Structure formats: structure tokens, C-alpha cells
Amino acid sequence: MAMVAQQHGESSSGSMNKHLDCGKYVRYTVEQVEALERVYAECPKPSSLRRQQLIRECPILSNIEPKQIKVWFQNRRCREKQRKESTGLQSVNKKLTAMNKLLMEENDRLQKQVSQLISENGYMHQQLQTASVATTDPSCELAVTTPQHSLRDANNPAGLLSIAEETLAEFLSKATGTAVDWVQMPGMKPGPDSVGIFVISHRCSGVAARVCGLVSLEPLKIVEILKDRNTWFRDCRSLEVFTMFPAGNGGTIELLYTQMYAPTILAPARDFWTLRYTTTLENGSLVVCERSLSGTGASPNPAAASQFVRADILPSGYLIRPCDGGGSIIHVVDHLNLGPWSVPDVLRPLYESSKVIAQKMTIAALRYVRQIAKETSGEVVYGLGRQPAVLRTFSQRLIRGFNDAINGFSDDGWSMLNYDGAEDVVVAINSSKNLSTSTSTVSCLGGILCVKASMLLKNVSPAVLVRFLREHRSEWADFNVDAYSAASLKTSSYAYTGMRPTRFTGSQIIIPLGHTIEHEEMLEMIRLEGDLLSHEDSFISKDIHLLQMCSGVDENTLGACSELVFAPIDEMFPDDAPLLPSGFRVIPLDPKPDASTFYKTLDLTSNLEVRPVANHASGYVASSYSARSVLTIAFQFPFERNLQDNVATFACQYVRSVISSVQRFAMAISPSGLNPAIAPKLSLGSPEAVTLAHWICQSYSYHVGTELLRTVSLSGELILKTLWHHQDAILCCSLKALPILIFANQAGLDMLETTLVALQDITLDKIFDDSGRKVMFSEFAKIMQQGFAYLPGGICMSTMGRHVSYEQAIVWKVLAEDNAVHCLAYCFVNWSFV
């Protein structure tokens, strides 16, 4: 009995020791932990074979069971996940604390402004009672009576310091005080999840805007970024520092000359002589403030002075305050007088609107700094393995080249060319433009020819127009012209005169590279597919590649304009590739609705409110847009010296054809000028739209025996609204030898990635693959006899070439009131992109 007990005790002791060896109670030595950490750094989740290999290769781990090593790695991954979550929560808490502080300061400023307005109201009431006329707003006196300092003061360092200190005081009173009557910018709501606090001036001389925001960069880095205005302000052509003085308080005073592009060919460019003061406040905040100096300071290049109008910068700048725990709070103020008297009346809103300045300068500054912060933290992922700085440089080069083409400055070598005497387009030539880079040289070029035009559009949404131009290039572009420009810029011996004959398929593939300015600006590669007509040199690439920048395509954002700028580029996409940009710019002249407002859609249900455009990038909304905008087109063409006249001829013809195509689409999306072929069905409150929706639902119920819509008591426009928002894709096609799609609800448009404007160009056979077409044709007789049919699930194709799967398709005849077959309706159930 004692022997049995002894054996049982030994067995229990062995079991316990085994448990301690492989269970959670094993204690690791420092050397063992270091060995495991080295493996974890290389592979956080090693396989069973890798763990066994680790035990064999590392003698100090030989007494550890493989299962225990697996548990160690599991615990290590768990600790890493908890650490990251904790760090993320701490970061969010710091941001919320800083944003709360910013909101409290803004609340204090608003309370002061309310008190000031109450005081002014009492004063005005008293003056009215005493029959005194008081028409001047006291809150504007600071901006109106700001002293003007002559450029001659630049020769006196003491005078410059006095001007700088005065500029600093006035800037701070605008950034954190009530010197300007600030009002909330429409569509921009403050809060922890928003970009920042955006306000614009009200009843103030000139145009002014202010923004406050939180950025995860240190103040010195932000100052460095913002002072380099060329990199983030796309309208800045040049900024030259002519004089720099050290200030007695450790700051610097600079005398600057700045040139600003004109956005269209209808107005001159602007230039500024300014004083810029950089200093540190007692609380550790950094300040960069700036103001214009009056006088007759001429342009450094007198020959180009006639192309500029002198404008003024009233006390403006940047206040950057460090936050506890890292990051900074930025206050940006821009206050300008752009001289609206020098532009046509139709363009004056661009120069008299504080909202435009906020979009172009103030908000752009904050968003650029935030973009740099995201890139620094690794939050931004770009395509084709390119670094963020490289892609941002490409985007800047595209915009700069496009602005140079629009403005045509004489000091860049541009001159006007009197070609055919017509005034619809402007032709300029540059025989001295150098497209060479450090590693590539463009040969055989006689120069660059630019054909450009600006025109007024009415009731056309800029975002809709640019989105159409981007997604439907074949509707307006001639791919062979793109091939000509691309071949002209190549360095191969066959590049220009030996260009191979190519037939382009009309399709384009968009390869996204990334957003270079938060979600406002996209950079992408476009591949235009083509087929060589001869089999010679089949090794040569048949495709054409374009580098393209697109901005302002979302109507729910507050961008200053919508742009589509592109340039031919080599398939290898070198960092220093020469670029010759062309493109479109659409600038709204009238204030657009609040960004939170739902827009209406151009389709058979144009009287319906639908979801915001941001959720449907392929949809085109416009019928509620009733405002003016100015469209600027500029196309550049390289030419050989002996072919200038020939290139000028086809360039003008091509640009005029592009303008004609754009105008046709603009008429189609304008509620006041709809395409006659579709206008009867697309007018607001169209009875045809309601009637067709009623026929679709009534015929479905008659043939299938169930209701298409869940609510059977609907009538009139409610049927149309419910059908439009139906979760399944519903399409209607005509009964012709070649059936054409005539209607689709929102889900149908999303599935096909098209719009009702382009829907009438799509035939039914294009959306099915071979097996789908066979099933459809085999069931056609049954559909016409029985009235409906269930088709099995399959694959169809969107207009962008993407495959779409669906579980089932229901087809039925749509009967009119006289029981005649009006069309066929298709319902694709549970569709999704493959």
C-alpha cells in the first residue's frame, strides 16, 4: 500500500514538473528573451517548423517546449497590439484636448464679438434717435484705415522694424481678436473630427479668411513649409527675397516680391511687394506676418510688368503654437485687396469673394501642412512605389505648366501668334521653352504652341463637368493627338517623323497613384490602349501613357475650382520626365449651395432628392445647380521648326472640336439647355418619368404575381422615388433590332458605372458576356410569350470594363396603358463588383 502511494506521488510530481515545463509558469532568462525578440522582429508569427528550427539552432532554448514558444509569441503579439491601441488612444486624447482648447478660445472670441456687436447696436440706435446718420461700420475701420508704408522705408532698418511690429500687432488682432468681423464659412462645421475652424470676413475692406487647426508637426517645421509658398499655393508663380534684416529680438525681416498667376486668360496676373516678419512670442509661439509696402516699386523684369496688376496684402500671416505632448495649433489669416477694378465684371466675384480666397489660400495652406504631417507619420500610401515628395512634385509641375500656358508670360518666351484672325481661341508660341531635364533631352523641337480659350458656362456644375471629362475621355479626345504629343517628347530616333500607325481602342485604364492634397487632389496614370496596324516593330509598346491630376470632382467639398490637367509621359515614369501639360479648369463664379445640401440628379427622376455625390463617383448631378462658372481650356503642342503652320492648323481645329464636345455635354447637364433628344424625359417634374415608373411596377405585378416595391399603396411621384432608391439594379431597354438602354435607377447606374446622359449609347449586348447573351437569347421567346422569365446568376460588364456578378436576373415586359409592349425591364438581384 505504501509502495502504491509512493508511486502515485512520483507520478503526480512528474505531471506537475511537465506542466511547469510547458505551461504558463515557465520563467525565461534574459538571454532566452533576447533570442525570441530577435526572431519576433523578423517574423512575429513563425510557423511550427520555424519554431522547431529555432529550438535546434538556439541551444539556450533547448529546454523550452515548442508549445510554450508558441504561447510566448501569442502573448508577444497581444502585448504589441495593446501597446499600439494604447498609443493610438493617447494620440486621440491629445488631439481632442488640443481641439477643445481651440474651441474654447474660439468661443471666447465669439463672446467678445457678440459684446462688441451689442455695443455697436446700442450706439447705432442712439445715433438714429438723435437723427445722426452713421453708415460706417466701426469693426471695419481697422482694415480701412490701415497705414500704408512706403517701399522707401526699406532703406531704413529701424523703420522696417517699426513697420514689422505694427504688422505683428494688427495680424494678432485678426488671428485671435475681433479686429475683423469673422463669420462661419458656409458648409464648414467646427468639431473634433473636422479639419479645423474656417471663417471669412463680413463687411470688411478687401477679402479676408481665417482658419485654425491642429497639425501633428512641430512649429519650426510648419514655419519652414508655409514660408515656401511656391510649394503649396498653386497660384504663386514666384517668390523672391530681395532683402533680409535680422531683427533685434532674434527675428528676421524680409522684403519680398511675389507674382501670382491669373486663373483664366480673361484677367491679368497679380504681383506684390511685401514685408515679411518672422519672430517668436513670449509664450513660445512662432509668428510669420506679412503686409504690402506702398510706393512705385517696379517689377524686377520691366518687360513683363505690363502683364501684372499691383495688388495689396493687408496684415496677414501664420500663428503657430506648440501643443502639450507634441503637434501644433495653426492660425492662418489671409487679408488681400486684389484690385477687382482691373477685371471684367463677370469675373469680379473671383476677386471680391472672401470665400474664394479661403478656398485658394487659407484652407489650402492648412491642408497642405496636414498632408505633409500624414506623409511623415506614414499614414499615406502611394502607388507604383513612389515617394510622396516625388508625386507632390509631379502634381506641382503639372499645375505650374498649365498656369504658364494660360498666362503666357513674355519673360518665359511666350508671344501671341496671329493665326487665322478668329477670336474664339488664342494661339501663343514659345520657341525658347526648354523641356530638357538632367537625364533626358528632347531633340528636334522647334518650340511649343499653345491654343487656349475661356468661356462662360451657366447652370453647369464644375465638379460634374470635370468628372465627365475624366471618366469619358473618348467622348472629347482624339487619342491620336495624344499619341502625337507623346511621340514628339520621346528621345528615340523614330519618335517624331517615324511614329508608327496605331489604332486606338477608345478605352482608358486609370491607375491611381494617390491623393497629393488630402482628398482634394488625385494624381493618376492613364493608359490609352491601342493596336499597331502593322506587325513590324511589334516589340514597341502600343499604348500611350498620361500623367493626370484631377481635383474638385466632389461637389460636397469646398474647393476653389475643378481641374483636369494631364501630360504625356513615358511608361517608365522617371522622376525627372519632361512634362507638357494641357487640360481644363472650371471656376464657379457664384456661391454654390451649402456642402451639406443634397443635390439632384440628371435622369428620369430629376425631381428626386438622392444621396450625396460623394457616395457615387460615377454619377453626374447638375439639375439643381443654377450658377455661372468660367471654363478655361489650354492645350500645348510641340512642333518642329519647319512644321509650325501645319501644327497650328490642326491644333486650332482640335481645340475647337474639344470645345464643341464640352459645350454639348454642358448643354446636356444644364437644366435650361437639355439635349433635345432627352429633354422631354429629363425636365423637372416630368410626367413621363412618373408614368414609366408606374408602368414598370404595374407590369411586374401583373406578370410575376408579386409586388416590385414593398409598399403597394404608393402613387404618383412616390413610386418614382421608391423605384429610384430600390436596392437592386433595374434597367429598361428598347425593343429594337439592337436594344438600347433607356432607363436605369440609381443602383443600375452604379452597376454600369455610367449616367443617364450616356445610357442611351449603351446597347444591351455590351453588358453581357457570351454565356449571358446566349441565355438571354434563348429565353427571349419565353419572355415575349409568358411576359417574364427568371435568368440564372452570371457575370455582366460595366462601362468601365469591370466585371459584375449577380445572383439572379428577372426580365419582364413593360406594358403601356393600351397593353402595348413599351420596353423590357431587367432587375439584377444582389449584384456586386467582382
Automatic annotation (TrEMBL):
Identify the GO cellular component terms for this protein.
Answer: nucleus
Q: What is this protein called?
A: Class III HD-Zip protein
Residues in a coiled coil are 93-120
The family annotation for this protein states: Belongs to the HD-ZIP homeobox family. Class III subfamily.
Q: Which InterPro entries match?
A: HD, HD-Zip_III, Homeodomain-like_sf, MEKHLA, START-like_dom_sf, START_lipid-bd_dom
Q: Which domain of life is it from?
A: Eukaryota
**PANTHER family (alphabetical):** HOMEOBOX-LEUCINE ZIPPER PROTEIN ATHB-14 (PTHR45950), HOMEOBOX-LEUCINE ZIPPER PROTEIN REVOLUTA (PTHR45950:SF10)
Compartments where located: Nucleus
